[in-house]
Amino acid sequence: AAGLSDVVSVIVGTAVRSLEQLIEEKAEPFDLVFIDADKESNPDYLRLSLALSRPGTVIIGDNVVRKGRVGDLNNQDPDVLGVRKFFEQAASDRRLDTTAVQTVGSKGWDGFSITLVSA
Ligand SMILES: C[S@@+](CC[C@H](N)C(=O)[O-])C[C@H]1O[C@@H](n2cnc3c(N)ncnc32)[C@H](O)[C@@H]1O
């Protein structure tokens, strides 16, 4: 029987480099991707995650509402710009269907996105 160490591995390093490494190693496509590092790099994380996806892969992006700052076009914070560009990329890619869910919790008002890869 497979043990946990057969199915779980942790790669330590910067996320862009780790994703590039997985692509170079021709890793099997992932069923689920959870993006939750520095938001400024979200466009890179989406682009690289797509190279590790297949039809049916679900990509979740955390903290994509940011107390409404993402929808405020006057806000040019690098994290906000990263999330906005992430949505623009997702919306312009015909392989992707994306929605965002707004949440209210102990940390305040935020939300996450869900993207389904269809091709
Ligand atoms: C919002 S926290 C995510 C927490 C995580 N979802 C968890 O449950 O433990 C963001 C994390 O991304 C890490 N991070 C920030 N920039 C990164 C980068 N360029 N590459 C990899 N990790 C990064 C931070 O150190 C931090 O641990």
UniProtKB/TrEMBL annotation:
Report keywords, A-Z: Methyltransferase, S-adenosyl-L-methionine, Transferase
One annotated GO biological process: methylation
What top-level branch of life does the organism fall under?
A: Bacteria
PROSITE patterns to which the protein is assigned, alphabetical:
SAM_OMT_I
A Pfam family name for this chain?
A: Methyltransf_3
GO MF annotations, alphabetized: O-methyltransferase activity; S-adenosylmethionine-dependent methyltransferase activity
Q: What is this protein called?
A: O-methyltransferase YrrM
The root-end lineage is: Bacteria, Pseudomonadati, Pseudomonadota, Betaproteobacteria, Burkholderiales
